[in-house]
Write a structure and sequence with these properties.
homodimer; alpha+beta; 5-stranded antiparallel β-sheet; 16 helices; globular
Chain lengths: ~475, ~475
C-alpha cells in the first residue's frame, strides 16, 4: 500500500467510510488460504450498502479500474486475488439478513453473510439451509454463489445454484439487476441468475440473494461401512437409492490411506472398524415427521449390502458423538494430508457409472508416472465428485514431487475427459485452470462464454485473469 | 403455401428429405391448441439429424430468414407460431432416445422425443422422469426445455430446468454448443444451459439433452380434503411439509366451482366428499424402500389437520382407481371450463405465504369489475402457482365478457406484482405477454436480456416477436 494509484484519493473522497487503509485489516484479504497466491490491491473497499457498491462500480467503470470481488477468501483456485492496479472489493461488511419468510421457506440475505450464520438463522425457524462445506464458518454467501459451491449435501439438495430463488447483482457499469424474487415458478424470459452463479465475479458483483430453505429432517442416521472395490461402493449407493430415494443426505467415500492419515494426524481419532479395508463409505440418511423407523431401515439396507457381499463390515452410529467422530475423519482428511508433505490435488467429477473404471485407470496412470505416489482419493462419490489428491511419496522430496505433479495433472485431466468427466467439479476455474477451461469446455461453449463476457463487461474490468 | 418465398427452392435443394410440402402434414403445425393463433410458413422443415438443423440455421443466417422452432405445439402463449416469411422448424422427426444410463440415472434424448415416451423409457429401467403435464402425451422434450415447463410435480422435483444435466443447442449462426454433460457437478465457467432453458427459442434451437432420472417411489398415497379458507389450505401444506419433507409429490387445490364444472361436464365424475366445501386439496405423498408405513403416516397427518380445524373433511384413497378419479377431476378442470363459455385465464405465481391474502384481494378486484364473474382458480398451490381463471358469467355474452376480460387482466397483473408475484409462472411469455415482460421484469434485467439476445442472435432471426 506504499505507492497508491493515482485514483486512490478520488475514491477515498467518494466513499470515505468504505475505503479501508489499515494494513492489519487488509493483509488477511491478500493471501489465499492455501498460500498459493499473494495478492495486492490499489484500494481495499468494504461497502456497507448496495448503493455504495453501485457507486464504486461506476467509479471504476469510468476509469477502467479492475475490480476483484472477494467473499470469505476461502477459495482454492486464485479466484479472489487482488491486484495492485485495482480495487479489492470485500463484501464482508454487507452482511445483514434482510428478511426471513418461515411460511414461504425463504431467506433474503446480503452477499457478505457467513454461511454458518445463515444455517443458524434457518435453524432458529425450524428450517434448514442445507449447503454444508468445510469452510462454512468463514465462507460468505456471495462467494458460494459466485462459485456455485458444493459440499457434502449436494447428493440430496444440489449445489448452491439449486438453493437460490432470486439474485441481486451490480453489473460492471453500475446497473443493478434486481432479481430478488421469492417465487418457486417464474417463466419470464432469460434466467439471468444462473448466468451470474458460477461466473466467479467476472460478470458483476452479487450483492444479495433469496435463498430456499428446506424442511428440517426430524431424524438423521449415520452409517460407516467398508467395501473392497469401487464397484461395490457404487452397488451400495444404488441399493441406498432404492431404499431411501432422496432421503440420502450425504454419501462420501474415503480410502484406507486417508483413514491412516487421519488416525496419524488427528487428535483423538479412532479406527472406525476392527479390520482394515480398501474403501470406506460414510452415509447420512434422513426422514421427516413425528415418528420414524429410520434406524431399522438403515440397518435393513446395510444388512442387504452385507448379504450381497458389497459391504465387508458396517456399523450404524449408536449416537451423535459416534457419527460426529466418523465425520471428523472425513472432514479432517485435507488437514491430515497437509501434515504428510506435498499434495497434488484435483477436484474432478465423472458420470457416476464411470467412477469405478476411472479410478482403476487413474491409479494405473498416476503410479506409472510416480510409482511410490500415495493416493488420498476421497470425496462426494454420490455426486461422482472425487478429490483426486496425491500425497508426496516417502522416498521423494517435496520439490521433486511437485515438479512431477505438474506432469501428472495434465495426463490425469485428459483421462478424466476421456471418461466424460470434468477438471473442476466444485472448486471452480479461477486463475489456475484457465488453460483447462479453454481446452476442455466442449464445442462452441467457450466462444459463447467469451461473447457474454464481452457484452456484460466490455472493458474487462471484472476480476480480470479469472476464467479467461 | 401457394406463394412460396424466393429462397424456398434453394432450401428444398439443400435438404430435400427435410422440407415437407404436404399441406395435410403442415396444417396442424400452424394452429395453436387453444385456437388463438393461426400461423403460416414459408417452408416447413422437419430435420432428422442435428447436422440438418445446423445446415438449416446456416442457410437461414446467410439469408436473414426467420426461424420458428416448434415442439409438440401444445403451448398457450403464441410461442411457436410460424410466419409466412420464415421457416417453421419442427423437431418432431428428431426423436430418438440416444442413450440411457440406469446406473448414473441419466437419459440422453433428441429434442423431438415425446415427454410420455421418455417417462415410459425411464419406467422400463425402474426409474422415474418426474415431469408431468396435462399435455405429456404430445408435448416434446425440446418444447418443455425451451419453455421450462412445470406441471403437477414441481413441488418435489422442480421445473424442467431442474431435471437437466446437459444441453445441445444449435445457435442462430449454426454453431453447436455441445453441452451434453452427464455430470452432477461441473463448475467450468458460465452455465449456458440455463440461458437456453426458458428462452422460448429466441437464442437457438435445442436439439438434445441429458435428463436426470429419479428413483421411482415404491409407495404413493393420495388424499383429498376440504378447507374453508386458503389460510387453512396453507396450514395444511406446512403440516404436510413437516410430516413428509420432500416426500410431497403434488399439492394441488381446486375451488368448489371447479368441482361443480367437472361434475357437470366430465363423464362419470362424482362429488368426492359428502358435503360441499369452499376449497379442495389434492395431495400425493411418496416413499421409498422395501417397506412403508406411508398409509398410516398420511392418515396421521390428515387427522392432525382435522383436529386443528384446518381440514373439514378428508379421505385417503382406498385404491388407485379412487386416486385416479380425484386426479381426473383436477386434470379435467380446463376442459370442463371450456364447455361453460368464455374464459379469461392467468398463469400466475406468488410467494407461497402471500397466496391467501392475494386470493382475497384478487376476488374482490375481479368482482368489482365483473360482479357476476365465476372464479375457477385452481392449481399448484404448493408452488404458489395459481391458474387464475375466470369463467363467463351466465348473464353475459361471450364477446362482452372477453372485452371485460381485457380490462381485468392488467388490473390483476398489477395486483400480482404488488404481492411480489409473476404474470407468468409456467406457461411463458411468447407473443401474448411481451408487454408484461417489458413492464414487470424488474430493474435492469430486461435490458440485459436484450443485450444477450443481440449478442447471440444479432440478425434477430430466432423466433422473432417472441419475448421482445
Amino acid at each position: 500500500m506504499t505507492s497508491r494509484p493515482l485514483w486512490f484519493d478520488d475514491l477515498q473522497a467518494l466513499m470515505p467510510t468504505a475505503v479501508v487503509t489499515q494494513e492489519a485489516v487488509i493483509a488477511p484479504h491478500l493471501e489465499e488460504s492455501r498460500g498459493r497466491f499473494q495478492g495486492a490491491c490499489g484500494a481495499f473497499v468494504q461497502p456497507q450498502t448496495v448503493d455504495q457498491v453501485q457507486r464504486l462500480m461506476r467509479f471504476c467503470a469510468d476509469r477502467q479500474i479492475p475490480i476483484v470481488p472477494q467473499g470469505g477468501n476461502t477459495g482454492h483456485v486464485g479466484g479472489a486475488v487482488g491486484r495492485a492496479d485495482g480495487v479489492l472489493l470485500s463484501l464482508s461488511k454487507l452482511n445483514k439478513i434482510r428478511a426471513v419468510d418461515p411460511i414461504g421457506g425463504t431467506m433474503t440475505v446480503d452477499a457478505g453473510c457467513i454461511l454458518q450464520t445463515v444455517q443458524q438463522e434457518a435453524d432458529r425457524h425450524d428450517l434448514l439451509f442445507p449447503l454444508s462445506l468445510a469452510s462454512e464458518g468463514s465462507c460468505q454467501i456471495g462467494g458460494t454463489l459466485a462459485t456455485n459451491a458444493g459440499g457434502v449435501h449436494v447428493v440430496k439438495y444440489g449445489t448452491m445454484r439449486d438453493l437460490v430463488l432470486g439474485l441481486e447483482v451490480v453489473l460492471a457499469d453500475g446497473r443493478i439487476v434486481d432479481g430478488l424474487s421469492a417465487l418457486a415458478k417464474d417463466n419470464t424470459g432469460y434466467d439471468l441468475k444462473h448466468l451470474f452463479m458460477g461466473s466467479e465475479g467476472t460478470l458483476g458483483v452479487i450483492t444479495g440473494a433469496v435463498l430456499k430453505l428446506s424442511q428440517k429432517p426430524t431424524a438423521r442416521e449415520t452409517a460407516l461401512f467398508s467395501c473392497e472395490s469401487m464397484d461395490h461402493m457404487l452397488s451400495v449407493f444404488h441399493l441406498f437409492r432404492r431404499h431411501f430415494g432422496d432421503g440420502i443426505e450425504a454419501f462420501e467415500m474415503m480410502p484406507r490411506f486417508g483413514i491412516d492419515l487421519a488416525l496419524r494426524h488427528t487428535e483423538g481419532a479412532r479406527d472406525p472398524l476392527d479390520h482394515e479395508h480398501a474403501w470406506y463409505g460414510l452415509v447420512d440418511v434422513v426422514a421427516y415427521g413425528p415418528t420414524s423407523d429410520l434406524t431399522d431401515r438403515l440397518m435393513g439396507a446395510l444388512t442387504v449390502a452385507i448379504e450381497q457381499g458389497w459391504v465387508k463390515d458396517g456399523v450404524c452410529a449408536q449416537n451423535l458423538t459416534q457419527a460426529q467422530a466418523w465425520w471428523a475423519l472425513r472432514e479432517g482428511m485435507s488437514a491430515a494430508q497437509k501434515k504428510e508433505g506435498g499434495s497434488v490435488k484435483h477436484d474432478i467429477a465423472l458420470p457416476i457409472a464411470q467412477v469405478p473404471a476411472f479410478m482403476t485407470a487413474a491409479a494405473a496412470l498416476v503410479l506409472s508416472l510416480c510409482p511410490t505416489a500415495r493416493l488420498c482419493t476421497f470425496g462426494h462419490v454420490g455426486d461422482g465428485n472425487i478429490h483426486y489428491n496425491i500425497t508426496q511419496p516417502v522416498d521423494m522430496d517435496r520439490a521433486a514431487f511437485m515438479a512431477l505433479g505438474a506432469e501428472i495433472t495434465p495426463a490425469l485431466y485428459d483421462l478424466v475427459a476421456s471418461y466424460g468427466g470434468t477438471f473442476s467439479a466444485e472448486h471452480g476455474v479461477g486463475r489456475i485452470k484457465r488453460t483447462e477451461l479453454a481446452a476442455y469446455r466442449g464445442g462452441q461453449a467457450y466462444s459463447v462464454m467469451q461473447q457474454i463476457k464481452a457484452q456484460l463487461d466490455p472493458q474487462g474490468i471484472m476480476n480480470p485473469e479469472v476464467l479467461f
